[in-house]
């Protein structure tokens, strides 16, 4: 339950974070567009099912008409078999004995003429063959390939098994019969009927008729189901009686059909979903199948879909336009006021809301203007107070420090020490005197590089006197940089950090090197020590502080923090010369720290 509540709160939180313009658009879309889309889908689905049902019924009607045509032609073949069986000459041919065959050769011509007349009357008949029980035959256009008896043929045996009932065999195969027209096996369909003696029920002969497949193709080829749909005819064994030249599949498995005489089903064939509608003829035993792709819709379905989609499109277009316009007109003043607040947040207090609206947004805008006026007054007052504070501190410092008095006092101590033979004390006092003199520099912030290096040299001499053999140092100044001016007092805080947090913390003596060189119009200082090094977390914190420009008011806070002197130097460099210059630091535990200082090379005038 708690997880569900948290999930609901998270969803509500996401919705609350959306801009008001999007909320208004979503609201208007829910009211107008979504119902229209739902109605369009419902209408399309209903029409689809109605049209699909009508298409199935129409296809079954077409199949029924094709079946009637096929039954008509098959009925003609059956009638022909009856006419042949009742012909007196053919009866005589069937009933005569084998010994009498040589006496009736003159009658064959009359029988052939009769058979030819039947093919003229029924042009769908490709050929007629009459075989008696002795294997002798008469035909209008057919003859045997070899001397093998026709009574051994499979079609003859099939007719005998049917016991005088008319039977449709389908396409012939491997027959010992051919014709003068040379019909191929897939161009004709064979039907047979055995002629029985009415008294003894013995088989006296068999009538074989080949029906042209052309009559079947003519009945089916003109029937089109959609753009690519077609009809095909198969027998009760699933063998094709007729199929188009380029069917979706060459053969339909017989187990796909239900036990009913007619019906429909769908199958996936080679990535295409096909619809099958079929009906079986009880007379021929053939099944006429309509095959078409379900992706193809009839013209009425496409037309209705077009109107439905057009309606939904225009409703959505109008709804989106209205939603956008209304949301924009309502959210524009709010976004404008929000942009003013963002500018004020970035420090631009000169922006003002301009509008004469009398609603809540107008009141909020005027209150915002009043707030900015008050903030400007407070900032101006604060700047005056800070300026007065710094001036007072400077005057106090100047009042307490008399540079000439300090220099004269240190010089006096220096000469007294030399007079007494205390050379070390004299040297130390001299270094301290130079340190103060260069540090004050008559109030100048930019001094020659030579004086800055003298200042750091004096500072190191003083620290050397304190740490003795614990501290060693070297100064390396390129000859081409001595006459260049730099910002004063940038190296002393860095060297101080190197001593107190590097050399002092390591075991044994340590070394500090200060190197100055010019590179591409810039002065580059390298202050390197072999001290303890800085831990990674502390190093990243120091780098973060160096990357943040502190304000003047922050100089008086947190003086005990590590690296505070370097941070102040970084602020002086950035404020004086820009972000291109400043301090960078690298350190490794146990190996020491290197501080790089980049300043502009200011040529002496």
**Global shape:** elongated
Show unreliable segments. Answer: 550-560
CATH homologous superfamily label of the domain at 444-603 = Histidine kinase-like ATPase, C-terminal domain
End-to-end separation in angstroms reads 79 Å
Rounded mean pLDDT is 77
Question: Looking across the biggest beta sheet, what order are the strands in?
Answer: 2-1-7-6-4
Helix content: 40-55%
**Which CATH top level class of the domain at 444-603 fits?**
Alpha Beta
Question: Helical stretch count?
Answer: 14
User: Biggest sheet, open or closed, and with what strands and sense?
Assistant: 5 strands, antiparallel
Helix/strand/pairing category: alpha+beta
CATH fold field value of the domain at 444-603: Heat Shock Protein 90
Strand content: 15-25%
Tally of DSSP β-strands? 20
- Return Rg in Å: 57 Å
Per CATH, the architecture of the domain at 444-603 is 2-Layer Sandwich
What is the gist of this entry?
With 605 residues, the protein is α+β, with helices and mostly antiparallel strands. Among the domains are: 87-217, Beta-Lactamase (2-Layer Sandwich), CATH 3.30.450.20; 224-296, Beta-Lactamase (2-Layer Sandwich), CATH 3.30.450; 349-400; 444-603, Histidine kinase-like ATPase, C-terminal domain (Heat Shock Protein 90, 2-Layer Sandwich), CATH 3.30.565. The chain contains 14 helices and 20 strands.
Overall description:
This protein is α+β, with helices and mostly antiparallel strands and 605 residues long. Among the domains are: 87-217, Beta-Lactamase, CATH 3.30.450.20; 224-296, 2-Layer Sandwich (Beta-Lactamase); 349-400; 444-603, Heat Shock Protein 90 (2-Layer Sandwich). It is 50% helix and 20% strand. The chain contains 14 helices and 20 strands. The chain has helices spanning 2-17, 20-86, 88-95, 108-121, 154-161, 214-220, 299-345, 360-400, 403-419, 423-440, 449-467, 492-503, 536-547, 564-577; strands at residues 125-132, 137-139, 142-144, 167-170, 177-179, 188-196, 203-212, 230-234, 240-242, 262-269, 272-280, 287-293, 446-448, 471-477, 484-487, 510-519, 522-529, 582-588, 592-600, 602-603. The strands form 5 sheets. It has a 5-stranded antiparallel sheet with strand order 2-1-7-6-4, sandwiched between helices. Strands 9-8-12-11-10 form a 5-stranded antiparallel sheet. Strands 14-16-17-19-18 form a 5-stranded mixed sheet. A hairpin with a 6-residue loop joins strand 6 and strand 7. Helix 2 (20-86) runs antiparallel to helix 6 and helix 9 packs antiparallel against helix 10. The longest helix has 67 residues, at 20-86. The chain is elongated. The model is unreliable at 550-560 (pLDDT under 50).
